[in-house]
């Protein structure tokens, strides 16, 4: 048995698409909070002191993250996005925070966030300017990396505005090297592929060697159409992008907008379930000081977070599309499988999705244990390949469940290829 396990480990190492950026970070998808989608570039602290981009916002968010169970649930990074700096660099050419909105400066803010046991993220841009027109890092990569390290920053989101696309790769690689040279561990979040896709297919081997996660597609908005478009883009490019995900580097479909204004509760469940299936960073952009208890419970759901943070670190795939249902599957450690069934029919009521006599569902031979996590926790008990399972899924909602092999013949299971365990030949009866 030991020999069989060893062979599997060796094969899975060899089949990794590429080496990850070697900074010891993002071994699991990053969890935290990022200001952009909810707070954008609100710099009017005179009229809107509670919601403007200022040190107060991040300090309050850090306080709430500790007090309200977010940190305990795994959310760790408090991240600043665009619009934090002054329009002028200082006399030494260093970026500086806007003095009115960040009177204590970033170093003091980092100390505060660290005192809460959390980490601080900051934002800059690979080009001449940030997307909102603040100073970019082009020509200043080493100075900026050193400034962030001196301040005690733990994560850098590096945007791609105002950059010649032919120099994108070079710029992102140069900044990656500059961060490494500081000798501080700084998680590196890139947007290299997002800005390269309009011109050519990005090199995901190089991206994985350079970044800890990378945005591929448009910014998320607080709407179901936005979340849907991200899912559709991801599924239609999954054969290119999913193999590059793994411990140390992840595809980033952008922020969780759960707890805001635009998604129904079913749609919020769909975003949470599918972000876990996609092994996506879980960076919330919402107002944790004022969030509906149901959204909070969903974001802190330990079963879903366990899927997101599974140590195998494989990204899931969309495996079937039938009758406006989509089936997504993510292989988990210990031969388990997470399955999400999304009902894309936006009319009518709950619809039944029936899984029966699945020839490809080999992890249920001879038996498996099925646990539904969404829409509510339900132990569905021991099943076999001959079982019929009926799921009820609301319009634009998702049923999420895990399948655990029981009484397994370990050696046989380890010989199975991941594709063999797929339930893509599922039959649907309405
Ligand atoms: C810098 O890169 C080297 C070699 O890839 C790696 O061993 C080291 O841990 C990196 N240091 C930091 C701070 O990321
Ligand atoms: C990246 O670094 C190389 C070597 O220092 C330099 O020649 C090149 O101009 C840099 N590119 C960018 C975009 O900064
Ligand atoms: C992609 O990047 C890798 C690693 O930097 C490199 O070895 C490879 O040649 C590149 N592939 C293409 C098609 O440019
Ligand atoms: C099936 O899984 C549930 C949830 O993890 C667990 O409580 C139950 O004991 C399991 N049943 C068997 C027979 O393993």
UniProtKB/TrEMBL annotation:
<protein>
    <recommendedName>
        <fullName>Alpha-galactosidase</fullName>
        <ecNumber>3.2.1.-</ecNumber>
    </recommendedName>
</protein>
<dbReference type="Pfam" id="PF16499">
    <property type="entry name" value="Melibiase_2"/>
</dbReference>
<dbReference type="GO" id="GO:0005764">
    <property type="term" value="C:lysosome"/>
</dbReference>
<dbReference type="Pfam" id="PF17450">
    <property type="entry name" value="Melibiase_2_C"/>
</dbReference>
<dbReference type="InterPro" id="IPR035373">
    <property type="entry name" value="Melibiase/NAGA_C"/>
</dbReference>
<comment type="function">
    <text>Catalyzes the hydrolysis of glycosphingolipids and participates in their degradation in the lysosome.</text>
</comment>
<dbReference type="InterPro" id="IPR000111">
    <property type="entry name" value="Glyco_hydro_27/36_CS"/>
</dbReference>
<dbReference type="GO" id="GO:0005576">
    <property type="term" value="C:extracellular region"/>
</dbReference>
<dbReference type="InterPro" id="IPR013785">
    <property type="entry name" value="Aldolase_TIM"/>
</dbReference>
<comment type="subunit">
    <text>Homodimer.</text>
</comment>
<keyword id="KW-0458">Lysosome</keyword>
<feature type="signal peptide">
    <location>
        <begin position="1"/>
        <end position="20"/>
    </location>
</feature>
<comment type="similarity">
    <text>Belongs to the glycosyl hydrolase 27 family.</text>
</comment>
<keyword id="KW-0443">Lipid metabolism</keyword>
<dbReference type="GO" id="GO:0009311">
    <property type="term" value="P:oligosaccharide metabolic process"/>
</dbReference>
<dbReference type="GO" id="GO:0046479">
    <property type="term" value="P:glycosphingolipid catabolic process"/>
</dbReference>
<dbReference type="GO" id="GO:0004557">
    <property type="term" value="F:alpha-galactosidase activity"/>
</dbReference>
<dbReference type="InterPro" id="IPR013780">
    <property type="entry name" value="Glyco_hydro_b"/>
</dbReference>
<keyword id="KW-0326">Glycosidase</keyword>
<dbReference type="GO" id="GO:0016139">
    <property type="term" value="P:glycoside catabolic process"/>
</dbReference>
<feature type="domain" description="Alpha galactosidase A C-terminal">
    <location>
        <begin position="313"/>
        <end position="397"/>
    </location>
</feature>
<keyword id="KW-0732">Signal</keyword>
<keyword id="KW-0378">Hydrolase</keyword>
<dbReference type="InterPro" id="IPR017853">
    <property type="entry name" value="GH"/>
</dbReference>
<dbReference type="InterPro" id="IPR002241">
    <property type="entry name" value="Glyco_hydro_27"/>
</dbReference>
<keyword id="KW-1015">Disulfide bond</keyword>
<dbReference type="GO" id="GO:0016020">
    <property type="term" value="C:membrane"/>
</dbReference>
<keyword id="KW-0325">Glycoprotein</keyword>
């Amino acid at each position: 048995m030991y020999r069989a396990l060893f062979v599997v480990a060796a094969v899975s190492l060899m089949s990794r698409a590429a080496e990850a950026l070697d900074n010891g970070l993002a071994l699991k998808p990053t969890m935290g909070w990022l200001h952009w989608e909810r707070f954008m570039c609100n710099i009017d602290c005179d009229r809107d002191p509670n919601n403007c981009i200022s040190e107060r916002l991040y300090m309050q968010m850090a306080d709430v993250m500790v007090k309200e169970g977010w940190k305990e649930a795994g959310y760790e990074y408090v991240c600043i996005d665009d619009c934090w700096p002054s329009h002028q660099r200082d006399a030494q050419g260093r970026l500086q925070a806007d003095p009115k909105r960040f009177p204590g400066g970033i170093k003091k803010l980092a100390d505060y966030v660290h005192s809460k046991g959390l980490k601080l993220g900051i934002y800059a841009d690979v080009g001449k300017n940030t997307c909102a027109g603040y100073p970019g890092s082009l020509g200043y990569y080493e100075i900026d990396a050193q400034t962030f390290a001196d301040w005690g920053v733990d994560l850098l989101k590096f945007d791609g505005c105002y950059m010649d696309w032919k120099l994108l790769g070079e710029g992102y690689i140069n900044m990656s090297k500059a961060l490494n040279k500081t000798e501080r561990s700084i998680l590196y979040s890139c947007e290299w592929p997002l800005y390269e896709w309009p011109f050519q297919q990005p090199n995901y081997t190089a991206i994985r060697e350079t970044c800890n996660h990378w945005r591929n597609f448009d910014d998320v908005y607080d709407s179901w159409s936005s979340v849907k478009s991200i899912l559709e883009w991801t599924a239609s490019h999954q054969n290119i992008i999913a193999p590059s995900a793994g411990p140390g580097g992840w595809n980033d479909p952008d922020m969780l907008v759960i707890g805001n204004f635009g998604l129904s509760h079913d749609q919020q469940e769909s975003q949470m379930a599918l972000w876990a299936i996609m092994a996506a960073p879980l960076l919330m952009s919402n107002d944790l000081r004022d969030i509906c208890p149901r959204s909070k419970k969903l974001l802190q759901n330990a079963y879903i977070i366990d899927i997101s943070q599974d140590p195998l670190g494989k990204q899931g795939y969309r495996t079937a599309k039938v009758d406006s249902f989509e089936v997504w599957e993510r292989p988990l450690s210990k031969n388990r499988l997470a399955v999400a069934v999304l009902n894309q029919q936006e009319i009518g009521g709950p619809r039944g999705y029936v899984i029966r006599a699945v020839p490809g569902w080999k992890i249920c031979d001879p038996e498996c244990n099925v646990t539904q996590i969404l829409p509510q926790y339900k132990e569905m008990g021991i099943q076999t390949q001959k079982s019929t399972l009926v799921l009820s899924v609301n319009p634009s909602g998702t049923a999420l469940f895990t399948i655990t092999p029981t009484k397994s013949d370990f050696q046989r299971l380890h010989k199975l290829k991941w594709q063999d365990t797929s339930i893509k030949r599922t039959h649907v009866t309405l």
